[in-house]
Amino acid sequence: MPEADTARFLQDLHELRRIGAFKTGVHRPTYSPQDMESRRWLMDKMREAGLEASIDGIGNVFGRHPGPGPHLLAGSHIESQNEAGWLDGALGVVGALAMARAGLPVDVIAFADEEGHFGSFLGSRSSIGELEEAEIDGQVGAGGQKLRDALAGAGLSGLPRLQLDTGRYKGFLEMHIEQGTQLERAGHQVGVVTGIVAIWQYKLVVTGMQDHAGGTTMAERRDAGLTAVRLLAAIDAEFPRHCGPRTTWTCGRIALDPGASSIIPGRAEVLFQFRDIETEVLQRLDAALRRLVQDSNRRERCETELRILGRSTPALSDERLMASLDAAAEAAAPGRWQRLPSGAGHDAQYMARHMPAVMLFVPSIGGISHHWAENTADEDLAMGARVLVDGAARFLAAAG
Amino acid sequence: MPEADTARFLQDLHELRRIGAFKTGVHRPTYSPQDMESRRWLMDKMREAGLEASIDGIGNVFGRHPGPGPHLLAGSHIESQNEAGWLDGALGVVGALAMARAGLPVDVIAFADEEGHFGSFLGSRSSIGELEEAEIDGQVGAGGQKLRDALAGAGLSGLPRLQLDTGRYKGFLEMHIEQGTQLERAGHQVGVVTGIVAIWQYKLVVTGMQDHAGGTTMAERRDAGLTAVRLLAAIDAEFPRHCGPRTTWTCGRIALDPGASSIIPGRAEVLFQFRDIETEVLQRLDAALRRLVQDSNRRERCETELRILGRSTPALSDERLMASLDAAAEAAAPGRWQRLPSGAGHDAQYMARHMPAVMLFVPSIGGISHHWAENTADEDLAMGARVLVDGAARFLAAAG
């Protein structure tokens, strides 16, 4: 059976870490000189591993296995958040490279802009035909630069965009850091990901009446902030009755207008979201939220409007891919692995729409991610590569 | 007995309204050309009414009654909030002028910057020796201009600052719009103000742990925003048990850091205040707030720190001044007046520290203030002037 060369794998990872190094992490925003340097580095490594390397018009780097199938597809993204960690994305790309180096029939891919400097999953969506030219025309980066200009600056203008021949693949594998503390707390070295949660996002807009905090009695006021607080407190009390075991819900922003100490807020805007892997749970929570808003509108003197910002669908992992990784994990790290869902979005969720897909997590020290301090112990990284390669081999053998 | 010339009073008000006119209101920020024009206008009117007019080094305009006492002091401020109402402040100054025109032995004053474009009650504090040169040196306006530069630009540099001879006065009177809807709702034409509430202001700082909204389970998270919401909901439930009949409490701002939809807030800052006219009620609410914060810190995974931003003292009206205004109101508008506290701060609260003081309110249409749409019916304005002049005369007669 093919085996991962873990020393080589760690060497590749540490080489990549030097491109755009920032403190103990990296700074490689999409299409920046550092990002493009990392993509060229990757193409060299792909060729070294016997793959046919190319880059496409959105920045996807693709390494095609020249031999016979059945084939797998593996990878992740290679750019980073600003001044962020060295493993987020890079790990899945270098892990895919380790699969190729081990002799597996794998195409390796580094998707562009998973981190959303310019758009939402530009590379993975482009590769499956879900990114229109018009969207590329209209996108502007966080720094105000047009996506078209960024592509031109990176020398990508005019290149064709890769369209994956999805029928070519038995499955997609993506290794990634957990970005949470489940594995670390359990003392586990790897996690087999059961799926990627869907995110349902809302904006709650409460309309009251702006007034003087001294002149307006409690009985007269229509305080939009207070209505928002009561509604959020009701959600806090009610959601545990409807959630699943791993549901999360988060209010990330409460903006009171005008936001001064002596003025009763005339308007409140609240960002609220929940995530789960089961559509049924998502629907239950959506219904509960609607009831709570309705209830608030019946009781309160301020009207609350519930606006939907986005509703993704959960991406469930393929059971046979999971079983193969389970077996590889139990063989390499007996009792020190588990299944768990991914609370964050990943390129794998787009691949899962077109082929069996799975992810493999390794622990994040302290759960830190999107920060340069992000890290994982070398032995856990190596264990991840070992399980990834062995699991893929087991899957191909069983599928064979 | 002296009587108000209400036609003349309304004519003065409408003349002043033309200086810095903005829509149906005015724009006369402190020390602006429009503000200085209004101060010069006032000095002319003072001289016309037989007073000795002067302006001092902070912008206070003072009209001294040249005859024998016993004297009263009356007035308010003449600058406006930005693009705000024509009556806020101006009414009290022109009302004081009406007292002088009626022959009452009154010194008229227009305090500078009650509206706080550069500081907090600069004019009234200066006039009673509660404004240090060092504070003037350090103050910077909302637009970034230094107070010293603004004073120089207005031609006030080097002028001495008026120090009121507080022993000269039997009392201080300030007429003002209500800035609420108590009088309007009751169908009353004037209100005799029982005092100016104290404002106790706090900042609640909640410290949690910033984390990924997907990767961090509900059990693991330390959500500073959620702790803030629970605490505010507890205040909402608990404060009605401790408040007085006219207490107000307000949360004007909730800032979650970093404030993004997919990030668990690591920090929350909340501006909270309450107002009451009774020190005992203020102390009861302060104790309740401390208990709630303590309780939160016992239960929650995020620590809340309670910071005091300010605690003013209530300024109670003089009972004899109130009784004189009561009698004048009942004579002029039988059954159409009431006593009520002021929820907003006014220059009178500083005068009340050194002499008997009282305020007289007229209705605000729709309770609107700090907005150019602010207005009061002419007949209510005239009624206010009538009651002010008659009340002052009754007070002096009784004080003999």
Put the structure in a nutshell.
2 copies of one chain form a homodimer. With 400 residues, chain A is of the alpha+beta class. In chain A, 35% of the residues lie in helices and 24% in strands.
Folded structure, characterized:
Two copies of one chain form a homodimer. Chain A is built from twelve helices and 17 strands. In chain A, strands 3, 4, 5, 6, 7, 8, 15, 16 and 17 form a nine-stranded mixed beta sheet that branches. Helices cover 35% and strands 24% of the residues of chain A. Chain A starts with 5 loop residues before the first helix and ends with a helix. Chain A is of the alpha+beta class and 400 residues long. The first copy, chain A, folds into two domains: 6-197 and 314-399, 3-Layer(aba) Sandwich (Aminopeptidase), CATH 3.40.630.10; 198-311, Alpha-Beta Plaits (2-Layer Sandwich), CATH 3.30.70.360. Chains A, B: Pfam families: M20_dimer, Peptidase_M20. Chains A, B: InterPro entries: Amidase_Cbmase, Bact_exopeptidase_dim_dom, Peptidase_M20, Peptidase_M20_dimer. Chains A, B: Keywords: Hydrolase, Manganese, Metal-binding.
